[in-house]
Each structure stands twice: as structure tokens, then as C-alpha cells.
Amino acid sequence: MMKIGVLSLQGDFAEHISAIEKNGKTAIQVRTIAELKQCDFLIMPGGESTTIGKLLKSTGLDIEIQNRFRTGDLKIWGTCAGAILCALEVVTDNPVNHLSLADYTIVRNAYGNQLDSFEVSLEVANIKTECAFIRAPQITRLGQGFEVLATYNDNVIFAKKGNLIVSTCHTELYQNKEFYGCLLEGQFFGNFSNL
Ligand code: GLN
Questions:
Q1: What does the angle CA 47 – CA 172 – CA 160 come to, to the nearest 5 degrees?
Q2: For the sheet containing 164-167, what is the strand order?
Q3: Stretches in the chain below the pLDDT threshold 50
Q4: Which of 52, 106, 121, 127 has an alpha carbon 20 to 30 Å from 59's alpha carbon atom?
Q5: Sign, Cα dihedral of 75, 77, 82, 88
Q6: What is the CB < 6 Å shell around ligand 1?
Q7: Which domains does the chain have, with CATH numbers?
Q8: Is the pTM of this model over 0.85?
């Protein structure tokens, strides 16, 4: 049976869990390797990528996520800080313990500081959703094989390749039932209806 986990080391994991629960599904809070082992799909939420990266290392979750993703055993949605952590190349002032899961380049805090945060309404893979850009990163290069699901001002803000979705904005804050329904029920990642 397919199960969703939300990496719950730091950041806004509670909003993802509540959005999932509004769709009548449950999510496992992932803080340990044992909890990750129960999941087939991991959401890596927004937060502070330097902090989450350190905690991934101290828990050993970094290696476990890398191994399971590389063998095709784990689907991942990395959003905001999560997208920074999944990237092969991170442009940053402070080092981030990132996982290099896929070939793209991402620039931290690319839209400015907290006061430059903003909200927009967008369509992601034909689903309308609000998006908040909060000290958001920007994807400046996508390697081969990515499908672009949404752009904003010519910037790629949602992209998918194989078992990985990356996004640079927060959609979980709006608890959008349709958006999460499509995500969970298969538009992005095949059939999750057994959850
Ligand atoms: N600025 C954060 C970082 O670099 C990411 C912000 C976010 O997740 N909304 O880690």
C-alpha cells in the first residue's frame, strides 16, 4: 500500500499534513529512518535548508533518502527548502548539506529577503492554486528530462522528472483540496488511490 510521509525535521510540515488530511488521507511524520521506511512518497517541505540539511545528516536520513530514491523505491516532492535539498547544484552563501538527487541548479533567496515575499495565483499542470514565495529560491538551470509544470515570469517554479517533483513556492498554506487531491490521486505520480 502506498503511503505518504512528510519530512518533519523543521519547516512547515504541519501545513502539508493538514492539507493531506483534508483529502481524507493520512501522512506519516518522518524524523527517523524507521519512519521513512514506512513511506513510498516523501514530501520535503519549505523551511531553512541549512538546518534541515544538518538534521538530515545527523539522523542518517540523507543517505537513506539518496539510496531509496536512486533505486526508484521512493517518490519525492521537494518544495522550497526541499527543492534546494534535492538539487545537484546549490548557489548559496552558506553551505547546505544537499542530496544531489537530480541535475538542476537552484539559487537560494533569489527574490530577496522576507519583506520581498509575495503571493500569486497560478495554474500548475492545469490545476489552479495560490502560491506564496517566501524567501524563495529560483531554479536557474534544469538538466535533461524535466517536464515543466508551471512558470512564473519565465522562471520555472514547478518541474517533474521521473519520481521527483520540485517546486519553489508554498502551495500548502492554502490547503487547496483540488491541488492536493490531484497530487495524491495520481496526476503527478501515478496511482496513489490505495492510500
Ligand atoms: N530561504 C530558505 C532557504 O534557503 C527557503 C525558504 C523556503 O523554504 N520558503 O533554505
A1: 85
A2: 27-30, 4-7, 41-44, 75-79, 164-167, 155-161, 147-152
A3: 191-195
A4: 106
A5: positive
A6: 46-49, 80-81, 84, 108-109, 134-137
A7: 4-184 (3.40.50.880)
A8: yes
